[in-house]
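Sample intake sheet
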Amino acid sequence: MPADNCAQPIIDVRGIQVDYGEGRLALDGLGLTLEPGCHGLLGVNGAGKSTLLRVLLGLLRPHAGGGTVMGESIGGSGERLRLRVGYMPESDAHLGDLPAIESVALLGELSGLSPVESTRRAHEVLHYCGLGEARMRSAEGFSAGMRQRLKLAGALVHDPDLLFLDEPANGLDPAGRETMLSMLREVSARGVSILVSTHLLPDVRDLCDSVVIVSKGRVVRSGRVSELISGLSDLWRIQVEGDSACYARALEAEGLTAHTDSTRGDVVVQCPPNSGTKALFRAAVSAGVGIRELSPGTKSIEDVFFESIEESHGHS
């Protein structure tokens, strides 16, 4: 794998528009610049994540805009670009009854390696991904975790500079998820840049240095995770007795940004600086709920995501 990346941005695109017709504007003037590193791509279903990946891979020509990936034009050098980029799709991509070693070697040849080099590399990456003993077996009998690791091996076989990963931990149990994330951390530490598209917010928190949030075909927020979650003295976490969703709506009626944390069951609300807590109690009276606990919160990647989506809807 590469020892380091070049100094230029790995992705630099501007004004990307993809129109599927009948009012389906998948990407709406999207612009994005990413330096070498590990980046998360977040967005609700239909936000444009998969379309963006197809554009960046040179598989879909945008109707407007352009730019480069690894210095290669996204509009005219798709074949050269894919020699430097590995792609792990969300859906299974194994080839019929082929043994894992042949399937991965074939992907290596399609990426420009000779047959001999493809086979050598396939053995290496399958061992790396924990599939060395299963390399002569067909993926038809693989578990969900083994199929995910097989897709990662296929993305790594040609020694790319940049990995595009679409839901790499989807469907994995906690042990399988940690195994996948551990391998990806090691790949990133070796100098391979990563863009991971996922709906699993903890994966971004545990893996990525920075995050890009897409909504309605546009980038609505981006930056280093540590910067996005810092400096929130007016974030509150509130446990209520009653309907928390109703309380969140009452808080929004007060002009505040609020959502219910599905994992903890409390309500997270962002107040303007130095605004105090009066609006929090007014909303509780309006919603007919009791406040059981009110505590200053620590902003999480989940909070950043929900705030960004809500702001984008408010500006539409």
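Comment: The CA atoms of residues 34 and 267 lie 33 Å apart. The radius of gyration is 22 Å.
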